[in-house]
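DM from R.C. (forwarded with permission)

"hey, sorry to bug you on a friday — could you get me a structure for this? deadline for the figure draft is monday and I only need the backbone to look sensible"
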Amino acid sequence: MEAVMAKSKRWLSALGAMGLAAGAVFSPSYADDRDDLVNKKKQQEAQIESYKSSLEGVDTNLQAVYLKLKETQAQIPVAQAELATAQSELAAATRQQEAVSAQLQAAQGELKTIKQTVSANQENVESTRKDVGAVARARYRGESVPTRWDMLVGSKSSKEFLDAVSASRTAERTQSTALLKAEQATAAAKNRQARQSAVEAKIGQLKKEADNLVSAKTQKESAAQAKANNLASLQSSYSTQSQQLSAQKQSFQASLANVNSARDQTAAQIAQIDAENQRKAQAARAEAARKNAASGNSGGGSNSGGQGGGSGSGGSGGGGGGASGGGFLIPVIPRPLYVTSPFGMREYPFGGRWMHNGVDLRSPCGQAQVAPGNGVVASVRPAAGNSTHGNQVFINLGNVNGHSWVAVTNHMSAFNVRPGQSVTQGQVIGWTGQTGQVTGCHVHMEVWRDGQVINPMSLPGF
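My reply, with the result:
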């Protein structure tokens, strides 16, 4: 009996340890995995924004096909990571379910052993109860064991006396044994009852936990299957979209030709503005020379000729060395600036190269855009008939320190100026939009100096 109870205690301790271990198996931290997924999605969004900027000027239908392809491509590794996480969670749920099932089986086996022990000892308990009852009845009737003096007086011979003493000792041992067995049987019965109650309660708890785990495992299996199905669907879509894109290469070539044509048109218009600025600058220098000559002839002696910085466009608020480097200009939207597509040579994602003459800046639809400097609106080109650039504004900033400056903005949603209108730096000239061959609202700003585009972000203050 003592061995059975000791074994039960050891089993209970082991059962608790198994429960803790199972909980540890099932509750790993997935925070790092989920943070990785969030970061991947953020990177995906930034990448898609970059793709959109790289497609400026391409036919919008072709853009849609390509962007859908890239979105699908970017979603595939995210879906793979999500599937791996779901499979990991399913594996953890399976391990815990197996651990709890093992605990439940062990508890049920222990309960069976306890019940068998109770049944085997039941007869011994009943016999012990009878012996105790017999002793109690004898004492009640006064049939207690006689003393040594009673046995000596009542014996007729020494042999009879010794026999009486032996019988008395046997009776005493029988009574003591019966009482000891009664005490042990009572204690064992109480222990077995307590142990059986504890095991039965543990079995009830484990059964409930096992039922919950079956439900949790089923949900994990469904989640993992859904992730796997989503991944398969994305891979299938990627294949289909790749075929669609390949079939539209001719459309892309036409778009690339339109981009180059629109760029040439802009450059031609800039050349006209520069020519006009140079004509005005030459006229101003000639007038200054004439005045200096007239002043010299009259004895005035002036040395002020040859400034060359005037312009019929309203001039600029800048001057000195900074002005020659564009230091008199400001961005068309407030700082801080976020570049979505930089200035410079660009390769289309599906072939071809072209020069991105400006810089694309993040800007929500409807945000006000302002004149980067003082000048005159040289041209306002509506989106109709200007399909690549959309609504476009040219501002002639005039000659500043011997250089002809022009600023251009594209894709506006609406204009706030008209051709020939003088503007001052910071004055609203229009609003951010997505007109022309673009897929989202943003600022496209170009700065031209003496007929050559320069990187606006290289200018002071940008």
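R.C.: lifesaver. Residues 376 and 422 are 4 Å apart (CA to CA).
me: no worries. The first strand starts at residue 339 and ends at 341.
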